[in-house]
Write a structure and sequence with these properties.
Length: about 350
Amino acid sequence: MKDELNLKEALRRDTLTDEETARLWQRVDPANVAARRRKRRRALVLSLSAVAAAACVVGVLFLTRTMASGPKPDAILAFVQQVDTADYSASNTQLVLSADQTVELTERESTVTYDSASIKLEGGKRKEVKADEAARYNRLIVPMGKRSTLALADGSRVWVNAGTQVIYPVTFAADRRELYVDGEIYLSVTPDKDRPFVVKTKETDIVVTGTEFNVSAYDSEAEQRVVLVRGGVEVTNRGDGKRVPSTFTLAPGEMYWHDARTEAVRAVDVARYVSWKEGMYIFDNDRLSYILTRLARYYGEPIRWDKAAGEQRCSGKLDLKGSLDEVLQGLTITAPIAYEHAPDHHSITIRMSNP
């Protein structure tokens, strides 16, 4: 160190002694320079190694934290993708308890009630199933011409319209309650602020804590609706790659509506959309094609119509407690149409009546 200081002081002078000159040449000798470079290179490698190791630790911590806090797979939607397509042309309502156990409910109206120990059945030969016989998810498949009521273990109640499938866990999770629907249901949800209730469709999530509302979301139809009767719901359209995800909050008396191209929220007369659960349809300037589609599903009987008849507009009420013939007779009073059964009585054709 002392020698280093002496050289620096010598360099500041105008002349150097012979001894100082010799020592300077020794400092720039190639062998000595190479040795010093090797020493600095080893120090640099060690420093870079330490930096790389620290970066790896940070990367692992970031990846671990990201994996822990990232979105978890949606279990119920994953289950929906694995199951077979529901057969809505079947004769009976089906409660699918597991891959190898299905209970059939033969009556036109049926009820399935869950509690912690058992599943009680009304509308079929079997009256009860032990809860431990069911798999994690159950499927209630209501075919054309049938309806069912589902009473869940949390006290919530679901009215299930014809041509509808509901998928739900036998036991709800500790932090949320959810089910999946393809079709139409009316729900009365038991309030539980710590466990929001989520209704999932092919395209939307409907989140509530306690309320009553109607969901019409048939996979076979482009138009889907959520109508709020009381309480509050938040509807999120998850998007399909073409549409940006969106979220709407509904107030009582409002309907969220969307089809393949657009979506909106508007005020409606809720009775028009929920009267089916009381055995009545209310229509207001609706196309006959829309009315006939609902009647065919409700009664489980194919109905065909020509274009002119389908374009007719109708308003009024239809009492669905009677037969399909009685309902169609009522339609002939409000619209200039006539109907006839096929010779085999397996379908009905609607046409414009003669003037």
